[in-house]
Amino acid sequence: MNKFKRYILSLLLVLSVILIWQITENIINTNRLANNETGLEAFIPSPITIVHAYIESGDLILNQSAYTFSRAMVGFCIGILSAILLVYIFSLMPLLRNITLPILFGVNSFPVVGLAPAIVLAFGQGSFSSIIFISALMCYFPTLITLDTAFNNIDQDVLDLMHVMKAPRWQIIRYIRLPHSLPYLFLTMRLAIPASIIGATMGEWLGSKNGLGQLITVALYQLKPSLLYASLFLIVAVSILGIAVTGLLERQFVKWKYLK
């Protein structure tokens, strides 16, 4: 099955789920009307209701999303670049890697959900820096662990050949370790994109005055599930878009991976 057919089947699956969702919601609403049940909006809104939320509150959602996605982008860049820098330093200083890496694994065992309130208290509730820090933290450790594994998972025969040729360490990194690690970098970037958005949203939940996290909190307390779901699906859509763009970049920079 070629890639185009897989995309078509995936699209048909998504459309089928949406159709079943809409039909189920219509049946539930019909039963509610038959039983004279009125009041609050259904807690699981139909797809049409969510579309209406985009139409009615589109400006609000877009304005708040600008805060979230800009913070997530900054956090993503900081998390990815700092992890790359540390892995590069580790490759130049193996002793430092052996000492530091177990400590970093221990720090990574702390749940981010538990660390987030402490980070907010340290940087200030709702501050720009606290939200970016949480977003960067969500990206940092997965990238660090993946790239460190890629940098050190090199065929020993290749390394022995480079040593016999008396290649300096920077050449081994430039011509062996770095090209070998590029596919892993793009893999972890695809994972880090939604993680950075989740981190930014989490930081906004904890007291920010703007952003999709704050909008989701307001929608929850005001019992507006259509606005809540509209915000969530926008996060999903932007994450998918970011993953797709990363895939296109990978095809440009890691062309040998796709050669048949």
UniProtKB/TrEMBL annotation:
<protein>
    <recommendedName>
        <fullName>ABC transmembrane type-1 domain-containing protein</fullName>
    </recommendedName>
</protein>
<keyword id="KW-0813">Transport</keyword>
<dbReference type="GO" id="GO:0055085">
    <property type="term" value="P:transmembrane transport"/>
</dbReference>
<keyword id="KW-0812">Transmembrane</keyword>
<comment type="similarity">
    <text>Belongs to the binding-protein-dependent transport system permease family.</text>
</comment>
<feature type="transmembrane region" description="Helical">
    <location>
        <begin position="7"/>
        <end position="24"/>
    </location>
</feature>
<dbReference type="GO" id="GO:0005886">
    <property type="term" value="C:plasma membrane"/>
</dbReference>
<feature type="transmembrane region" description="Helical">
    <location>
        <begin position="128"/>
        <end position="147"/>
    </location>
</feature>
<dbReference type="InterPro" id="IPR035906">
    <property type="entry name" value="MetI-like_sf"/>
</dbReference>
<feature type="transmembrane region" description="Helical">
    <location>
        <begin position="103"/>
        <end position="122"/>
    </location>
</feature>
<keyword id="KW-0472">Membrane</keyword>
<dbReference type="InterPro" id="IPR000515">
    <property type="entry name" value="MetI-like"/>
</dbReference>
<feature type="transmembrane region" description="Helical">
    <location>
        <begin position="184"/>
        <end position="207"/>
    </location>
</feature>
<feature type="transmembrane region" description="Helical">
    <location>
        <begin position="72"/>
        <end position="91"/>
    </location>
</feature>
<feature type="transmembrane region" description="Helical">
    <location>
        <begin position="227"/>
        <end position="249"/>
    </location>
</feature>
<keyword id="KW-1133">Transmembrane helix</keyword>
<feature type="domain" description="ABC transmembrane type-1">
    <location>
        <begin position="61"/>
        <end position="245"/>
    </location>
</feature>
<dbReference type="Pfam" id="PF00528">
    <property type="entry name" value="BPD_transp_1"/>
</dbReference>
<keyword id="KW-1003">Cell membrane</keyword>
